[in-house]
């Protein structure tokens, strides 16, 4: 079974293109209509769907035209907890007191 971590960038790009195409078809849109709505060329949309390389601008424009710009939130989610702030509020660790050796311990 192939996992995302085992895919090449080309395979990931092709998979993304397939998903975008499937979503476009699910919404009963042809390529020409979606390209016009997104403000991109038909060739750019075809390249994106085929996984043949595209620009971030084309991807974002197509996602917006499909009403799916929120998909980008999963690319770089905003951290809700900063691990550095957790350590600032923590109590300082207690250490055992060092025992001094007396001359009789030797």
Nearest-integer average pLDDT: 83
- Dominant shape: elongated
The Rg value, from CA coordinates, equals 27 Å
Give the tally of β-strands: 0
Order of helices and strands: HHHHH
Question: What structural class should be given to the helix and strand makeup?
Answer: mainly alpha
- Summarize the main sheet: none
Continuous helix count: 5
Low-confidence stretches: none
> How much of the sequence is in beta strands?
under 5%
- Taking the alpha carbons of the first and last residues, their distance comes to 66 Å
Describe this structure in words.
Helices cover 48% and strands 0% of the residues. It has 106 residues and is mainly α. It has helices at residues 9-26, 31-38, 42-50, 56-65, 83-88. The mean pLDDT is 83. It starts with 8 loop residues before the first helix and ends in an 18-residue tail after the last helix. It is elongated and about 95 Å long. Helix 2 crosses helix 3 (42-50) and helix 2 crosses helix 4.
